């Protein structure tokens, strides 16, 4: 029996990540981005936008995240993609449509392409809840980056399973 698991130590061949960030609710998404960058940097990833390890793609809102994420995933250039956004409930059903479609789209991309896609879109009832998850109490951006690191490492470890004979 073989056991596969991800690692958080820097690999011999550097990882390459894409971060897709929604501009809508940027007060929240910029904080998530900051937490994400801090985690990646502390794990040996060069987060400089001019560098070669992380690409940053800004989209209008969370609804647009899956379209861009799919294009990135099928390019074959990334070990993992982190999707950051914030959908905050209002007084209309708009929240349900945006949050649901973003989640379905992101899940489908990971399943269809085999590229780890991290769902970092906060879905909260209030702005206060979103801010708490983006840095006031803890920054979920850090956790999203940890998930990406672990999944990228795991997928590399499992690479021999995908080769055909």
Notes on the protein architecture:
One of its GO terms (molecular function) is 6,7-dimethyl-8-ribityllumazine synthase activity. Its EC number is 2.5.1.78. InterPro entries: LS (IPR034964), LS/RS (IPR002180), LS/RS_sf (IPR036467). This protein has helices at 26-42, 65-74, 94-113, 127-133, 140-157; strands spanning 17-22, 54-59, 80-88, 117-124. A four-stranded parallel β-sheet has the order 2-1-3-4, sandwiched between helices. 44% of the residues lie in helices and 18% in strands. The chain is globular. The protein has 165 residues and is of the alpha/beta class. It has one domain: 3-Layer(aba) Sandwich (Rossmann fold).
CATH class: Alpha Beta
Q: Any low-confidence stretches, pLDDT <50, length ≥5?
A: none
- What form results from the Cα inertia axes? globular
What value does the Rg take, in angstroms? 16 Å
- From N to C, what is the helix and strand string? EHEHEHEHH
Major β-sheet, in short? 4 strands, parallel
Termini separation: 20 Å
How many strands in all?
4
What's the rounded overall pLDDT mean? 94
CATH topology: Rossmann fold
Summarize the topology.
Elements: E1 17-22, H1 26-42, E2 54-59, H2 65-74, E3 80-88, H3 94-113, E4 117-124, H4 127-133, H5 140-157
Parallel strand pairs: 1-2, 1-3, 3-4
